[in-house]
Amino acid sequence: MLTIRREQFAVFKPIAEEVFVTSVVDYIRNEHGVRTIELPDGAITIDAIADATLRTMVKGGIEQARRYDLTSKSAITSYVVLMFLTAPNFDHHPLIQHTLLDEGLDPNLRLDELWQRTVDQNWVAVRQSYDPSEWQLKTEEAGT
After folding, report:
1. What is residue 68's three-state secondary structure?
2. Are residues 79 and 111 in contact, defined by beta-carbon separation less than 8 angstroms?
């Protein structure tokens, strides 16, 4: 029987994380590339965002999703996609925040529950409070 030691697992974890980031970036580009989003410097389509910048944005979204205890790849991907489709700060809306922090729900099912608890007006409010400065745009090349 093959046993992977903790030290070996630690070596593979960053590689697996980069593969996951790449899969989310590819999904966003392939499925939503023509979508226009607001960055601090102005509006831009997702396809026009530099690869390094988009990777940084996705990594920031993944970190944000994990702060809500999301662990499944599908839940984390859904969270990041919601950032791009609605607002990078969508989680600041009181009802959405309440659902994302609801300890009575499995964290990986909280996004599914959002669709049950929210109405169109909630999402209009999210879009109206869109804050482009919420995108995490510091690049790794700059040492951050």
Report:
1. coil
2. yes
Phi, psi angle pair for 69, to nearest 5°: 70, 20
Distance CA 27, CA 53 (A): 15
CA dist 74 and 109 (Å) reads 10
Nearest CA among 134, 35, 39, 130 for reference residue 87: 130
Task: Name the strand (E) or helix (H) holding 43.
Answer: strand 42-45
pLDDT, tens digit (0-9, with 9 covering 90-100), for 79-126: 999 999 999 999 999 999 999 999 999 999 999 999 999 999 999 999
From CA 140, how far away is CA 138, in angstroms rounded? Answer: 7
**How many Å apart are CA 86 and CA 105, to the nearest integer?**
23
